[in-house]
Amino acid sequence: MNGPLGEITTVAGRNSFDVAAVRRDFPILSILVHGKPLVFLDNGASAQKPEAVLQAMDTMYRTSYANVHRGIYALSDAATGMYEAARETVRRFLGAADASEIVFTSGGTDSLNLVARCWGQSFLKPGDEVLVCESEHHSNIVPWQLAAAATGAVVRPIPVTDAGVFDFDAFTAMLSPKVKAVAVAHMSNVLGTIMPIKRIAAAAHAAGAIVVADGCQGAVHQTVDVQDLDVDFYAITGHKIYGPTGIGALYGKRALLDALPPYKGGGDMIETVSFERSTWAEPPARFEAGTPMIVEAIGLAAAIDYIEGLGLARIHAHEAEVLAHATDLLGRIPGVRIVGTAPDKGGVLSFVAEGAHPADIATLLDQRGIAVRAGHHCAQPLMVRMGVSATTRASFALYNTLAEAEALASGVERALAMLR
Amino acid sequence: MEAAAELEDLKETFGFLDDWEERYAYIIDLGKGLPPMDEALKTEATKVRGCTSQVWMVGREHADGEGRVRLDLTADSDAHIVRGLIRILLMLYSGRPKAEIAAIDAEDFLHGLGLDQHLSPSRRNGLFSMVERIRALAA
Fold first, then answer.
1. pLDDT by residue (tens digit) across B76-86?
2. Diameter of chain B measured on Cα atoms
3. Which of A9, A58, A167, B76 has its CA 20 to 30 A from that of A119?
4. Residue of A nearest to B83 (CA)
5. Is A62 exposed, middle or buried (0-12, 13-18, 19+ CB in 10 A)?
6. Chain B residues with CB within 8 Å of chain A CB
């Protein structure tokens, strides 16, 4: 191959993480796309599933499936035990003090809507302010706009710098007694920036505001300890951490969850029901109306067990190595600009290229079996801030390799040669 | 070149190209030959929704002196591959009598080129959004 990437040779992995063995755990990674080996770099949208998750879900359906919290029979007891054990696994993963602080939801969007709706309707008043980082995913903007519209509160954007770093000075200048909540992603899904959640929480708390962290990306690429971060709420989704779709979780400090009204009405969330008055169950049941995502919760727990078994620190080190390699290679291609150059980043690489639309680049990469995302990534205010209409985004997972980073870079270089 | 001759030429060229990369390179080249669209025409009203990139399209009618009203189309996109697809759609539709437009099957034509297998569902949706807009302009 010619061009600035011509002299690249594969760098041997510098940590002990055996990515070849890990890849064998993910059946889908062996398929061909357009006759070429799949290079899956859209993990920020959703990650692939290891055999351990597929088997855990399949086994439960085959051997121990029944509705939970209801039946007085062995199978329901077994299923309930597994469901509650899954909650305990999520508690451990997030470092929460108690399993009752973990509410199962249908995903990150559901978790954030739960907070914005239930906390918002209880605690927001006209003129109150919710500060939301301008790099947020729409799912951490729109629920707050809905809550603001319902209560008369105002949503204000916290700026990021040109590099995509959280503007801490601007943030502290915005804090006032009117600010009641601060909503920030632990890691930006577009820029990859790791946000200083612990510092944000300390400053917000000093000003009397709660902190809601969207951990949908952060929990994939960072080790999370909600008590150390001292966040009030932390939202995660299962499908981005190698678990199934349809399951997520919301961590909330117990005292806050106790103070919230129910999210949805139905079975399992009540203490007593009469036509005069119904009373609510304690958290987390209060927020889990109806039959929950039982098998999905078991799948999520299997995914967490799987990544903890590999070692979170080793995974993150491997991802950092792949990200650094891809960043280096793409940065060498003339006319390519990386969007999001914060010093502290997780495995997300967004870029734009002169004379080439992100959709064109993604289309041409797809023909080589390379899956990336192109568009606004559900973060339109951020696109405006960064002065772009869209980006191409490669997002890395534990199974991506240095060779795949090279395939990405050479694919981009070839696409640009075709487009220019 | 006459639209019919252009389309024949297009079919023939695609017939020679058996490799995806050559086909895409040809579509990109077609896009580069798309007549420029006046920037003032690129408004919210002329934007075609449902595309992965931005697409604008306007139609202008003219009487052809034989008692028919024909629809002349101008369109553009900020993406090269989409510009190429627009060029093909314009060969199919632009300048045709309005009454004939509903009967033109773009999907069938693209299938004939062997192009549809290379189009992702989102790209295909965008293409059909454009065809829908053309049909609405002709209605």
1. 999 999 999 99
2. 45
3. A167
4. A360
5. exposed
6. 20-21, 24-25, 28, 52-54, 77-82, 118, 120, 123
Where are the domain boundaries for CATH 3.90.1150.10 in chain A? Answer: 19-30+311-419
CATH number among 3.30.200.20, 3.60.130.10, 3.40.640.10, 3.40.630.40, domain A53-309: 3.40.640.10
Token pair for A120: 């918002």
Instruction: Identify all chain A residues contacting B21, using CB atoms and an 8 Å cutoff.
Output: 367, 418
Taking 50 as the threshold, does the pLDDT of residue B59 lie above it? Answer: yes
Interface test with A, best of B80, B82, B123 (most A CBs within 10 A): B80
- Whether the CB of A36 is below 8 Å from some CB of chain B: the reply is no
pLDDT digits (tens, 9 = 90+) for B91-136: 999 999 999 999 999 888 888 887 776 676 677 778 888 999 999 9
Structure token digits, residue B132: 């829908």
> What are the residue ranges in chain A where pLDDT is below 50?
1-14
Which residues of chain B lie closer than 8 angstroms to A417, CB-CB?
A: none
DSSP characters over B83-130: HHHHHHHHHHHTTEEHHHHTT--HHHHHHHHT-GGGS-HHHHHHHHHH
With an 8 Å Cβ cutoff, are B24 and A418 in contact? yes
The reported pLDDT for the residue numbered B40 is 96
| Contact yes or no for B53 and A34 at CB 8 A | no
pLDDT of res. A15: 53
